[in-house]
Amino acid sequence: MIKIExxxxxxxxxxxxxxxxxxEIGSGIYGLxxxxxxxxxxxxxxxxxxxxxxxxxCSIDGMxxxxxxxxxxxxxxxxxxxxxxxxxxxxxxxTRHSAFxxxxxxxxxxxxxxxxKIDRKQKLSAVSYGQQKKxxxxxxxxxxxxxxxxxxxxxxxxxxxxxxxxYATADDTxxxxxxxxxxxxxxxxxxxxxxxxxxxIRQHRL
Length: 206
Hints:
Elements: E1 2-9, E2 18-25, E3 30-33, H1 40-47, E4 55-60, H2 70-73, E5 76-79, H3 90-97, H4 106-115, H5 129-143, E6 147-156, E7 159-168, E8 174-179, H6 182-193, E9 202-205
Helix pairs in contact: 4-5
């Protein structure tokens, strides 16, 4: 369960982005939609414990992510829109990084790479932004963390926008998406869940 309770926050003290907002997210598929600059990324960073609210609290399964406790950090994975890609292949990255995630499925990771047509041996720093994102998506879906938040770019009606989506797998774990090449995500979801479609999405608009 994700809970945001009476959060207020802004980058300037006299100009709050959020003022006493609350939100609960259970199982299902959720979308967080809004124009650029309205606070989608800020809200995600608050939820992940990367920013600290003026007042109120965010919690994941009853734990505060701002405390950076290992027991919680191993339960969620956040893929931001922009990140410094390492000078190594996605396979090498997964081998090194997945040690922190006890439910990582290497076979499924390899299947995801094949589904998204990613070269597992090519350095991430040497491929396009789109290929980097798809490689990280393949890794993220194989982690099987209870909460997965992905901030990625999608094209809607010709305009580049971001959408935050929370997707629950059949065993009621949470997967979060924040936009993207949504067709690739849908294909990957369908590939893993066989029959679960990216439709009936519940949306939270900022």
